[in-house]
Design goal:
Layout lengths: L4 E10 L18 E4 L2 E11 L1 H10 L3 E2 L5 H14 L6 E7 L8 E2 L32 E5 L5 E5 L3 E4 L2 E4 L2 E7 L6 E10 L1
Parallel strand pairs: 5-11
Antiparallel strand pairs: 1-12, 2-3, 3-11, 4-11, 5-6, 5-7, 7-8, 9-10
């Protein structure tokens, strides 16, 4: 006589393989949208925008400029800029600034500022030997692909030199939370004889 025991187990499978279809509906599902580390990243190469306008564009779709809070995120973004988008000389706004208080950099989403990748003489290293800030009007941060992906602080909207004013418009990277996590129940049947 065979004894058959039927065991049913319900296993919830979390959507570990997210796709661009999980990104917010308002974002175009094209080659400039990618998913990494559970977040959606939109690489906007054109049209170039000032930091202020880039920030507004990301917010209009429910996101922020990219929060590069770790070396892993930095490496991912830099790799995409170089290899996927072939932008070895591009500059991309990210969600970091010191607009409120000079030399007190904050992420747009309020997360802790612990990782940084500033080039020498930029950002928090932007002081003279006497301790004075050397670029007080450069409050917004971008990733500069031509400088190995290091960060540079620039004027957020316009820069002036002598009598020439230039609009600081660059590419940018938006970051979005996925629209939802897919959960699919699976049934496992085990036969023991």
């Amino acid at each position: 006589m065979f004894l058959t025991i039927l065991i049913w187990a319900v296993v919830l499978t979390l959507g570990s393989s997210q796709s661009v279809n999980d990104c917010p509906a308002a974002i175009p599902k094209d080659t400039h949208l990618q998913v990494h580390g559970g977040l959606c990243y939109q690489f906007v190469l054109t049209p170039h925008k000032t930091h202020t306008d880039a920030k507004k564009a990301c917010e209009a779709n429910g996101g922020t400029l990219a929060i590069v809070s770790s070396k892993a995120i930095q490496d991912y973004i830099y790799d995409q800029v170089l290899h996927t988008y072939k932008s070895a000389y591009g500059k991309f706004w990210i969600g970091l600034d010191d607009i409120a208080t000079e030399d007190a950099f904050v992420w747009e989403d309020g997360s802790a500022f612990s990782y940084e990748n500033f080039a020498p003489g930029q950002g928090s290293q932007n002081t003279s030997l006497a301790g004075h800030v050397t670029h007080p009007n450069e409050d917004c941060v971008l990733i500069d692909a031509s400088d190995h992906g290091r960060w540079h602080d620039y004027p957020c909207d316009r820069s002036s030199f002598l009598f020439v004013t230039t609009v600081e418009a660059h590419s940018y990277i938006c970051q979005y939370a996925p629209a939802g996590i897919t959960q699919a129940p699976a049934t496992t049947i085990i036969f023991v004889t």
